[in-house]
């Protein structure tokens, strides 16, 4: 009861409340059309700004680029084949068989042969991979195991004799294969693998052995049911005539047949076990492999970086085990590029479903007025609009990564190889972690309906979750990025040259070493805050500050803890540094994409989205900027207000922005994301007539 309210007022208040509830119930019975604009927009202070006009066709064409045609061909094929679309309820065994039928359909019926693009045109290959992953993530992973991992290992680690022998069989799916690197006791530490391949000079063969249970190959895709070959990573052991008797030449890759090509029976000496039901990706038949003195011809060594002659002599163009190992892993970086790209595809689907639902769903409103779209609520905008902006940012950055990877495959430039290795590690880690969190946010943003399996969030979340682990654990990959940053930092002060992605460090480090400008720290106009130079300088200043401070900490702790102990003491600091650097790269590539957009309306829309991405990230770390006086309190407040305004402006064109992803209905096949027939379809699923 309010202080000035009497007991007699209570019945009147109850009547008023009851009337209001009746009015609200009547609105539920005769709601506005879901597509009708909300009448409450004029209540928002920032609603006075005019809405941008967005040309969907131009924006979509700019985003999807030259590979749009092949993706549409894939979508059209699966749209015409409902029998190849994954149902909501499906057993593990049924899902595995469906995935192999999807793969066979893609290659045999749709006549899409992706294998040649792995080397010739990686951008085309990754476009195909994103499209098939949109159909079913399990299908996308099985596709990647066959062509990128098993096939890619033959192309990238083998020589002409291997390509001539295996290319056609891999291409037409006669030679289904596996990528057997991970062991029960070793995943991230590949140099610690224990499987051995011992050369027998008498028979001219390698003998593949699993010396203990910890060396069993584990989580091997395609192994449990469909695989006929495996690229097995093992330590190459050569007999010697010295006191040791053998010499360990480091980890190499070998082609090992695991099933008979005609009968599909497991070959002698091979043990295959099923890893069973998983949290997600149950369309992929993961298995475990044990080798008991399995003999393979000497020619089955993938010998691009090291070879063994008939008399047992080892030759290599690379002088050390570490250099050969680095070269081998460098050729496998395409897997990380593909995962980053595929993760963005998953994010597009989840954001599309959540935003469409939020535009259609109406809930609550002022007394005696229609309910409003839930995307008109500021809280919903703050959940989804920065996520939509991030999706665009990630899209353009992964496109840049694919371009750099393609250039690397053509030129084999040593500096570019290192740059792509670090950038792919950072983007794979950052994007997959962001997408994993966003999937939960999207589910929550769709309320109870988001919990229904038909609306896809559960499947997407479970299938995508492992993206944070395979092709390199995300925490391990971020440490690689931090290590490269520290190397670049050291080289800078020794007069060395910085590789392409790191060039900004030279200028921003000089800025950091000087004091923040007290004048610009207080500038708060919208023009200044939306200036790409201010945004990029802020991102890069933060990275430079983190880099300088962690370098100082490592020097200090190394004196007492040693290098390993110092690294562990500063580990969280190093991870933050790596993430900050990747965010700087993402923003830089987004700004470039905005500036290069040829269509004026699309460019205006992208500029708005880019500003939201930049200022939302700055606001989320505003404490750092304020603590070092890079941003004054009045400027921090202005950033917060402008971010809210941009959220609303992006909300006004959110429908156009998700439509530009150009995803077919069956890909986003969630009733809550459909148009006028949504609830009719939804209630039919529950059995209502």
Describe the structure.
Keywords: FAD, Fatty acid metabolism, Flavoprotein, Lipid metabolism, Oxidoreductase, Peroxisome, Transit peptide. FAD binds at residues 182, 221. The active site is at residue 471. With 689 residues, this protein is an alpha+beta fold. It has helices at 9-29, 56-64, 68-79, 92-109, 117-120, 122-135, 137-157, 160-171, 321-330, 334-360, 378-411, 414-445, 457-464, 474-493, 504-513, 526-529, 532-569, 571-596, 600-620, 622-627, 633-652, 654-659, 678-685; strands spanning 177-180, 196-200, 205-209, 217-220, 229-239, 246-257, 270-274, 287-291, 294-297, 307-308, 314-315. The protein has three domains: 62-171, Orthogonal Bundle (Butyryl-Coa Dehydrogenase, subunit A, domain 1), CATH 1.10.540; 177-326, Beta Barrel (Butyryl-CoA Dehydrogenase, subunit A, domain 2), CATH 2.40.110.10; 333-496 and 523-668, Butyryl-CoA Dehydrogenase, subunit A, domain 3 (Up-down Bundle), CATH 1.20.140.10.
Uncertain stretches: 1-13, 20-49
Indicate the mean pLDDT: 87
Q: Determine the CATH superfamily of the largest domain.
A: Butyryl-CoA Dehydrogenase, subunit A, domain 3
Strand residue content: 5-15%
* CATH architecture classification name of the largest domain: Up-down Bundle
Largest sheet geometry: 6 strands, mixed
Family: Belongs to the acyl-CoA oxidase family.
Subcellular location: Peroxisome
Organism: Durio zibethinus
InterPro entries: ACOX_C_alpha1 (IPR055060), Acyl-CoA_Oxase/DH_mid-dom (IPR006091), Acyl-CoA_Oxase/DH_mid-dom_sf (IPR046373), Acyl-CoA_oxidase (IPR012258), Acyl-CoA_oxidase_C (IPR002655), AcylCo_DH-like_C (IPR036250), AcylCoA_DH/oxidase_NM_dom_sf (IPR009100)
């Amino acid at each position: 009861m309010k202080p000035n309210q009497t007991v007699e007022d209570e019945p009147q208040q109850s009547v008023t409340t009851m009337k209001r509830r009746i009015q609200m119930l009547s609105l539920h019975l005769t709601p506005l059309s879901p597509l009708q604009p909300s009448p409450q927009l004029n209540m928002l202070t920032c609603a006075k700004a005019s809405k941008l006009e967005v040309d969907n066709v131009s924006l979509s064409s700019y985003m999807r680029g030259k590979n749009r045609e092949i993706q549409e061909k894939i979508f059209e094929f699966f749209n015409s084949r409902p029998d190849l679309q994954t149902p909501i309820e499906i057993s593990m065994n049924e899902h595995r068989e469906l995935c192999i039928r999807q793969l066979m359909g893609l290659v045999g019926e749709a006549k899409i042969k992706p294998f040649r693009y792995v080397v010739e045109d990686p951008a085309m290959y990754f476009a195909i991979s994103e499209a098939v992953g949109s159909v079913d993530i399990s299908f996308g992973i099985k596709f990647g195991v066959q062509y990128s991992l098993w096939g890619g290992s033959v192309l990238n680690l083998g020589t002409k004799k291997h390509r001539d022998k295996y290319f056609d069989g891999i291409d037409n799916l006669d030679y289904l294969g596996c990528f057997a690197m991970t062991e029960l006791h070793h995943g991230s530490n590949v140099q610690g693998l224990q499987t051995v391949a011992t050369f027998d000079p008498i028979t001219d063969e390698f003998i593949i052995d699993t010396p203990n249970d910890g060396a069993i190959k584990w989580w091997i895709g395609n192994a449990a049911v469909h695989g006929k070959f495996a690229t097995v990573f093992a330590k190459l052991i050569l007999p010697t005539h010295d006191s040791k008797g053998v010499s360990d030449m480091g980890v190499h890759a070998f082609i090992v047949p695991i099933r008979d090509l005609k009968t599909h029976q497991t070959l002698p000496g091979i043990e295959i076990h099923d890893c069973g039901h998983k949290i997600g990706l149950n369309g992929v038949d993961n298995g475990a492999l044990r080798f008991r003195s399995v003999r393979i011809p000497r020619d089955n060594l993938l010998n691009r970086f090291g070879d063994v002659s008939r008399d047992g002599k080892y030759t290599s163009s690379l002088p050390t085990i570490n250099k050969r190992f680095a070269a081998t892993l460098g050729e496998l970086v395409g897997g990380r590029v593909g995962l980053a790209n595929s993760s963005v595809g998953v994010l597009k689907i989840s954001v599309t479903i959540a935003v469409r639902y939020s535009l259609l769903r109406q809930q609550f409103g002022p007394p005696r007025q229609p309910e409003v779209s839930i995307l008109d609520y500021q809280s919903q905008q703050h959940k989804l609009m920065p996520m939509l902006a991030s999706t665009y940012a990630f899209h353009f950055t992964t496109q840049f990564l694919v371009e750099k990877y393609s250039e690397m495959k053509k030129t084999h430039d040593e500096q570019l190889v290192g740059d792509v290795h670090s950038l792919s590690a950072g983007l794979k880690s950052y994007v997959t972690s962001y997408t994993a969190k966003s999937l939960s946010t999207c589910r929550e943003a769709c309320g109870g309906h988001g919990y229904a399996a038909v609306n896809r969030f559960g499947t997407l979340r479970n299938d995508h979750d492992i993206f944070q682990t395979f092709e390199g654990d995300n925490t391990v990959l971020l440490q690689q990025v931090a290590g490269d940053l520290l190397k670049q930092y050291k080289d800078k002060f020794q007069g060395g040259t910085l590789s392409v992605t790191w060039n900004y460090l030279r200028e921003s480090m000089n800025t950091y070493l000087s004091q923040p400008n007290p004048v610009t720290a207080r500038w708060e106009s919208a023009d200044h805050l939306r200036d790409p130079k201010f945004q990029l300088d802020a991102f890069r200043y933060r990275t430079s500050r983190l880099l300088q401070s962690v370098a100082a900490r490592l020097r200090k702790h190394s004196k007492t803890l040693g290098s390993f102990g110092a690294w562990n003491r500063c580990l969280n600091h190093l991870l933050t540094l790596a993430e900050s650097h990747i965010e700087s790269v993402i923003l830089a590539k987004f700004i470039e994409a905005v500036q290069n957009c040829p269509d004026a309306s699309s460019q205006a829309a992208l500029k708005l989205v880019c500003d939201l991405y930049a200022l939302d990230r700055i606001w989320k770390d505003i404490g750092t900027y304020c603590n070092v006086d890079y941003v004054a309190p009045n400027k921090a407040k202005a950033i917060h207000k402008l971010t809210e305004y941009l959220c609303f402006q992006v909300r006004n064109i959110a429908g156009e922005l998700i439509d530009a992803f150009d995803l077919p209905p069956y890909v986003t096949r969630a009733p809550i994301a459909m148009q006028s027939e949504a609830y009719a379809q939804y209630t039919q699923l529950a059995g209502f007539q």
